Amino acid sequence: MSQAFLEAVRPLLGPTALKTAPDALEAFAVDWRKRYVGKPLAVLLPETTEQVAAIVRLANEHRVALVPQGGNTGLSGGATPDASGSQVVLSLSRLTRIRHQDSDNKTLTVEAGVTLQQVQEAADAMGLLFPLSLGSEGSATIGGNLATNAGGTGVLRYGNARDLCLGVEVVTATGEIWNGLRGLRKDNTGYDLRDLFVGSEGTLGLITAAVVKLFPKPAAVMTALARVGGPADALRLLQLAQAQCDAALTGFEFMSSVSTGLVVEYFPDVARHGAQMIGGQDGKPGYPTVLLEISHPESQEAATTMLDRLMEKALEEGVVQDASVAQSVAQAKALWHLRETITLSAAEDGPHIKHDIALPISSLVTFIAAMDQEMQSAYPGIRLINFGHFGDGNLHYNVAPPPALAAGKTKTERHQIFKDFLQTHEDTIRKMVHDRVVAMNGSISAEHGLGQLRRDEAKRYKSAVEQNLMKTIKTALDPNGILNPGKVL
Amino acid sequence: MSQAFLEAVRPLLGPTALKTAPDALEAFAVDWRKRYVGKPLAVLLPETTEQVAAIVRLANEHRVALVPQGGNTGLSGGATPDASGSQVVLSLSRLTRIRHQDSDNKTLTVEAGVTLQQVQEAADAMGLLFPLSLGSEGSATIGGNLATNAGGTGVLRYGNARDLCLGVEVVTATGEIWNGLRGLRKDNTGYDLRDLFVGSEGTLGLITAAVVKLFPKPAAVMTALARVGGPADALRLLQLAQAQCDAALTGFEFMSSVSTGLVVEYFPDVARHGAQMIGGQDGKPGYPTVLLEISHPESQEAATTMLDRLMEKALEEGVVQDASVAQSVAQAKALWHLRETITLSAAEDGPHIKHDIALPISSLVTFIAAMDQEMQSAYPGIRLINFGHFGDGNLHYNVAPPPALAAGKTKTERHQIFKDFLQTHEDTIRKMVHDRVVAMNGSISAEHGLGQLRRDEAKRYKSAVEQNLMKTIKTALDPNGILNPGKVL
Q: Looking at the whole model, is its pTM more than 0.95?
């Protein structure tokens, strides 16, 4: 049955577009964080939308499950096949054309396999900005970004991937091509199919191309690091910054003292750039810190004035204890690098539990206080590597074992000790965090999607009504269950 | 069968909540523009979500069609029952509670029957801004705004109703309650059900409450009127304004010379405020004009500087021929009033054809030039009352008969002559406009929805694939076809 499918597909594709040799499949079989190891029957690499549609039609005919994949940088295993040996990876990475550039409409029409960085570069060449930005942008594809509704650091001002998309071309689950590549800001002629496909993680249809929204480049971008007393100050600072800067506030990232402390410990050179704000040197405790970014359409001078005024007011009102403004692009980059090094520092420290949660912004302070306390009572000395997109209500509330468990041990020993600790406690800790998040009307996956990682948890937390609505839509659009089975639902 | 439904519903509702007397039904039976006159069996006015759900369950049981209605201000007949005498109007206007105000999260949770103006006022009382704004905001309800994904004048900066909604409570077509009232900026835990219900015009589910997004109030709002050579200049001005002001550009409305000329003719007192920019006095031709609005988060001074710089540059580059900046709130209001009086002036002039189209912004100039020419060749002397949200690519490209047809006639005679003209030519003209719009990848309903007015046209213009996707979703979610049959699809 599966072999018959491959034989039927083969003549449709170029000679290198159907892979079945075990070593050729490897890169497609494992997710980026190596949590999921699948066993695909084959990997298909079509180059056109028509080929994708033909593959999907044949998959329906032969009842073969397709697992769409882009840059394979997802964090929830959404693009990894299962271990049955019967699923076929459908890589969209060879759909790489930039179909249309439209400066006056501020749009780009790109195929799914164009990397995020290539989209950014194409926009830049037009004198415009594509503001979606992620750690993995060099490999992540725009198709994958849209399929997972990617977030990143620009959401506060520009929205997530869904907000940055004006239209899509989709191969439906039955193998038809829907041309929804409209570059319109307004279109009220029916159901919002676009937003339904975006974020559906390849379970309802395959996004083969998209029209993305571009923006004017700001005249000046300013970055600052502010030392705050804790999350309550961070919240007051956010309110002040939004009131004074509105859309010019393009970044607002919180870093707990444990987060900054880890950077100081493992990457002192990186931490040096924010030393005065983040503290943590010479064994002293680190400080909670906020990274702010202002993007101003007018001039460097206007941006400086705006940021200075904000910081003056924040200091005056005691919202901020100290602040430092980057004086050059290099300094600004160094501050962002500090923020981005938290993940790497935590990895150096050892195994830990990652969460990607969102809450109403008004609940962040209460959540953090109650959650930190609950964790410390349950596991004295446990560390909360809490950082992230505070301005979006999105925290990476990660949890690392108590360091005392590994005092005086080597790195290798420590990693093993932490691993053992998590083996015992990970499920309980995750449940503690997610239970509280859901009780406070939050989300257990703010930007990483459900994939396979959060699928069963989502079932536990979502109402029956919502689950049924999702299942009804899935069954209606993909009656044979061909597209990415086992993900999301 | 229908009577049995009413008998079953009666005990669920308060004594004034089920209306069947002909004179009590009248206000619910006719749309705002009086184009559609329906004949409802009854009108139901529930006060709670639970009542709505119970009604829908009974409607399924008795196979009675429900026509949801809010403030009944729609422009496409989407909330008007048919003439069969068997459909029941389900008014959501008594769901009027403001359930939750959250300043730190910048959200309001409101029930469907709260008017748009009440939402604006509640936001204002919190020191925040709800930017959705429409002519009918005093009667239009937020439920109706969301059901139709309303647009208005704030879309350029803040987006349409869909963009302003973080979560919804929906009574499904089978009478279950989905609580999707999340106040989250980020949530990637499944399909975007919210955006599917928003804009579905009550055909997939009934929005009974919503969480809407609020924004900081700008420190200063400045309005200007700029005389331009035509649409090409308007486009250049838009690009300049976005590059220099980015998100601070909150309004960009185009008015063709015919549009401003009509205001001069019928409402000279209103036109006086923009006299120098719009021309058209003493029988001279009017000028194409752009109304610009800048909202600045910092100060009056900063707003003035920004607008002055923009206008200087625009004059310098010859994009604008003259410009006048409102010197007071009253003057700014007068300029907006001028813009909003176009519709009334056109109505005074007589019957005409309304269009609500959207195009890629890069296609506006070509569209207008080609369309104007095609119209003038087909109907010499015909008038193009072309105005609207140019910055969103959304034009109200309205068409009025040649005035020469009624030269020297009284107003009553003129209206009759124009009516006769339209009787003969309306369908042809509409088809000319919409054919070109669709050929240029545009939308035939940018912000007014399909309702019954554009339903059949949408069928002609939409691909079979898209229509099938919509029908599949409709059938899956509303298997008995209870919700608003005959609308959208």
A: yes
A382 interfacial to chain B (CB closer than 8 Å)? no
Largest Cα span, chain B: 73
Pairing of strands B42-44, B18-19: antiparallel
Of the candidates B201, B198, B209, B204, which has an alpha carbon nearest to the alpha carbon of residue B47? B209
A166, A100 contact by CB (below 8 A): no
Contact in structure between B484 and B201 (CB atoms under 8 Å): yes
The answer to whether the Cβ–Cβ distance between B469 and A216 falls below 8 Å is no
State residue A270's pLDDT score.
Answer: 93
Q: Rounded to the nearest 5°, which phi and psi values hold at B339?
A: -60, -40
DSSP summary character for residue B6: H
Tell me if A182 and B450 make a contact (CB, 8 A cut-off): no
Instruction: Give the three-state DSSP class for A65.
Output: coil
A256, B64, B254 from B235: Cα distances, Å:
47, 50, 10
B177 in contact with A at a CB cutoff of 8 Å? yes
Instruction: Kindly tell me if the per-residue pLDDT of A284 is higher than 90.
Output: no
CA angle A170, A171, A174 (to 5 degrees): 140
Structure confidence at residue A275 (pLDDT): 83
Q: How many other C-beta atoms lie within 10 A of the C-beta of residue B54? A: 18
What DSSP letter does each residue of A141-192 carry, written as one string? BHHHHHHTT--BTTHHHH--GGGGEEEEEEEETTS-EEEE----S---SS--
Residue B317: how many CB atoms within 10 A of its CB? 12
**Is B310 at the interface with chain A, CB within 8 A?**
no
Q: Is the pLDDT of residue A129 over 70?
A: yes
Which residue in A162, A465, A489 is closest to B177 by CB distance? A465
> What pLDDT does residue B282 have?
77
C-alpha–C-alpha distance, residues B200 and B449, integer Å: 9
**Helix A231-245 × helix A364-378 angle, to 10°:** 160
Q: Report the alpha-carbon distance of residue B230 to residue A438 in Å, rounded.
A: 54
Whether the CB of B126 is below 8 Å from some CB of chain A: the reply is no
Chain B environment of A189 (Cβ under 8 Å)? 443-445, 450, 454, 458, 461-462
Q: Which of B195, B363, B444 sits opposite A189 (nearest CB)?
A: B444
User: Which of B75, B188, B392 is most worth mutating to test chain A (most A CB atoms within 10 A of its CB)?
Assistant: B188
**B301 in contact with chain A, both atoms CB, cutoff 8 A:** no
Place of tokens 């990876």: A89
Of all helices (H) and strands (E), which one includes residue B48?
none
pLDDT at A451 > cutoff 90: yes
**B297–A245: do the CB atoms touch at under 8 Å?**
yes
Average pLDDT over residues A429-435: 98
